[in-house]
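task queued by scheduler; priority normal; single chain, no ligands, no partner chains; default sampling; output format set to structure tokens
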Amino acid sequence: MHIKPWALIAEMRADRIGRDAVTARLSSLNWGALQELQYAYVADSVAAVHLAVKKSRNWPPWSIARQRESVQTLVHAAEMSVLPILTEIQLQAELPRMQRSIDDYLPREDLRRAWVDECLGGRIKECSPHGGRFTDYERERLSSALSWAYYVNSLNRARLISFHRMLVWAAVSLFAILVALSLVQVYVWPHVQIVCPSVCPTSGGGESRRGDVVIVAIFGVIGGALAAVRAIASARRAIDPYAIHAAQAFLKAMAGGVTAIVGVMLLSAASIKAQNSIQVLSFAIVFGYSEELVTHMISKREEALLKSAVPSVPEGERN
């Protein structure tokens, strides 16, 4: 069975957390009942990650965002559960990753992030004020900062998933509009010159035929698809775990079909004459490509949400 890359990464991270817990258990000289209880909680958290990944293999492809979100939340919970029982050496090794997660997810003005940068940054440079050992207070503060960072990230991921759904539903709505306009022209007004600026796209003359709107819509979708390719190619962020770029491309293609129909209709209303059907279809592609004027703000919003939910560092190298 095909294993999704993000699921494989999640299982690898869960296995690493389990190994860290076992190492801490074998290395600790002061292992008591409280540590044993925390160790059991870590084992349950790791098992929950593997179970969620196993269940996600049977989920439909369109639920990939929900799959990733549930697994990611469980991985974060497992990482938080192992933090109290890590040895000093393990905690020192994990500190750069933790600080990078805190810096990625928390704003600069957050007091938790400021404390981590000020009080723990020295340990990364191997000049700890406490001889390289963490006090219980520092462990608790670090755990609180990391927990809050993961919480903020979960909120940003939820906004990204919600935005993805809105893009898909908007694209589906535009597709329904295209189908409705095509059906009206084919079955209700087959001889009305809706998209014929002196020349109809199918007949090459002034006679309207069934399918004129369909042809214009198809070429408009082509123009919108070209705009989508350009937008994806120029995107600043290549990491897109929730398929936002795919939803945006679908929306832009459907919007291109609608803007092509509206644009050619405006040409007809303005009595602008086309020389032949090829020119009409060229107008359709141009109007389809011009949907970028309508969806530009959506693209900016997408980039902002991706930046807040998915830092520039590849996911497999974080957390």
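post-processing summary
- The radius of gyration is 28 Å.
- The chain is about 70% helix and 0% strand.
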